[in-house]
Amino acid sequence: MSSGPSGGSEVDMTPPKRLRSADSGAETLSGGEEELWRSTVDVSIVMPVYNASCWLDECLQAILQQDFTGTMELSVFDDASTDHSRRVVEGWRDRLEARGISVVISGHNSAQPRGVGHAKNKAISQSCGQYLCFQDADDVMLPQRVRLQYEASVLHPNSLIGCKVQRVPEGSTERYTRWINTITQDQLVTQVYTSHGPTVIMPTWFCSRSWFLKVGSFDEGGKGVPEDLLFFYQSLRQGGGIARVEQCLLVYRYHEKATTHSVTESVLPAHSFTPQLHILMHTYSDTVLILHLLTAAHWHPSFSQGSRHTNDTRMRTHTQMHIFVILRFLQYVFAILVWGGGADIPAVVLLQGYVVSAGV
Question: Torsions phi, psi of 304, nearest 5?
Fold first, then answer.
């Protein structure tokens, strides 16, 4: 028994048992059954998979052990794995469905994977839950994750909800992990541009489907493109919030094959630097921003001892500060000129093309 996000009387929301595979032509539901099923799935666990067979058993066992009492669905998209990942997931189907968790599995067998952004989009498009819980195949969710993040997302339907994490192996990326777990709720917003990624990290994301659809799909540029970072900035541009459940709800695995290691430095300026300046100039006062950027180089989480990124990040941060000051000054000048000409055009619109063409 469960009630949906909007409350109301309790109804039997246990979905009918069915075997579903998005590309297998397996059993299909009638129009009325499909509509009922779609309206009664509370949470879709979205899991892109690529060569993750060695981690999947632990990951799927954790999904099976969730204490959430609403309805759940596991939506898996296999991005041309060359190991036995898909077979492993199929092997868990009966156990998951016996628990009331419906399973949707699809994928492709192309010569090359199409990227994690593509896989996430496919997994979402074939899912039906009113809320989306993003799960990496190499991580492990704690039993209360779906329940606690669902409760938070119902209260904040236009926000990305994260959580604290336990990093394994223990001691890996120690400074970064400490930053993830100790920044305050206010710093989730004020530090969105002082790291190499979102202040609520992608493997912990949970959000309403309605918000995801408003923000738009993940970038499908493939290997090297930080699809989570781009989505995060787009969510901010749309006025989305950021929140975190103040409990550790995920075992976050560190290994050399992680997708994070494939992000190339060359794509970051074109994809992230311009949106940073654009949102910064529309969010905070000049004084707060300048102080924020000045201190960023000294509090950046990548400044661990011996980090090869230290000097590059400090230079990038100070460059941000100088460009921001120049653009803010030019914005005022343009505003006066445009206003004097009788046109009501925000100066930042005129400047944005300059920023993009300058490649910053």
Answer: -75, 160
Tell me whether strands 43-49 and 72-79 are parallel, antiparallel or unpaired.
parallel
- Region 308-316: mean pLDDT is 49
Is 138 within 8 Å of 59 (Cβ atoms)?
yes
Distance of CA 266 to the CA centre of its chain: 21
pTM: 0.69
Place of tokens 């009331």: 100
185-214 pLDDT, tens per residue? 999 988 887 655 799 999 999 999 999 999
219 burial type by CB count under 10 A (0-12 exposed, 13-18 middle, 19+ buried): buried
Least Cα distance to 259 among 207, 221, 232 occurs for: 221
**Banded pLDDT at 272 (limits 50, 70, 90):** very low
SS3 per residue for the chain:
CECCCCCCCCECCCCCCCCCCCCCCCCCCCHHHHHHHHHHCCEEEEEEECCCHHHHHHHHHHHHCCCCCCCEEEEEEEECCCCCHHHHHHHCHHHHHHCCEEEEEEEECCCCCCCHHHHHHHHHHCCCCCEEEECCCCCEECCCHHHHHHHHHHHCCCEEEEEEEEEECCCCCHHHHHHHHHCCHHHHHHCCCCCCCCCCCHHHCEEEHHHHHHHCCCCCCCCCCCHHHHHHHHHHHCCCEEEEEEEEEEEEECCCCCHHHHCCCCHHHHHHHHHHHHHHHHHCCHHHHHHHHHHHHHHCCCCCCCCCCHHHHHHHHHHHHHHHHHHHHHHHHHHHHHHHCCCCCCHHHHHHHHHHHHCC
